[in-house]
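hey so i finally got around to running the thing on that chain from the lab meeting. sorry it took forever, my laptop kept dying and i had to restart like 3 times. anyway pasting the input first so we r on the same page abt which one it is
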Amino acid sequence: MIVMYGYSKLGSHILKELFKNNKDVILIEPDKKLFDLAQKEGFAKEYYNFECYDDEDLIAIGINKQNLHTFYCLHNDFNKNLFVTLSVRNLRNDINIISQTRDENDAKKLKLAGASKILNPYELTGLKIFRYLHRPMALKIIDDILYGDSTLTIEEITIKKDSKLDGTYLKDTTIFEEYNLIVLGLQDTEITHEFIFTSRGMNHKMDVGDTIVVMGEKNNIRRFKENI
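ok and heres what got predicted. didnt touch it at all, straight out
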């Protein structure tokens, strides 16, 4: 059994993926409008319009059930995610808690509160891409993103002055392969604030200030950032 707190944009996409994989999900959404929308779309097994400000709410949804193995905190409000992460970990030290945030400092707070994995906005990008792939590795990556049981991560990297990537074309660059990284796309802030998927951005020349989004093992991404 899986519990999801927050029917955010990321939450709704992940819930749909779980639904496609025949997973039973209990959805908790404190906002009445989003709660009604979630019920209308119908991707969860049970729905609760709870704030989860006290343990009684969590107990009511079945937090102590042995078959509950994963708890998502995907609300758009960081403080709500932090509080619920802390509350869930206080009640259960044996389940996987996956929380979302856009800020690195907030990610550290969530880890201290007991989160097993931190989702960043680019996990959603990964889901969008891999949904259309049918290779076994793509399916494994989806599972890793959904359940957090992996050392894989997705991270944005801004190209700095004197970087080896400055002035190179994405289609001609082999350095990503050297670190076993997959480039999901990039953002050129001088041209557009939209994310450009690699399928459209292979002929793009990378410059200082561009942001690339890569996926790979955490250690490989760390080494890559140290050497570019």
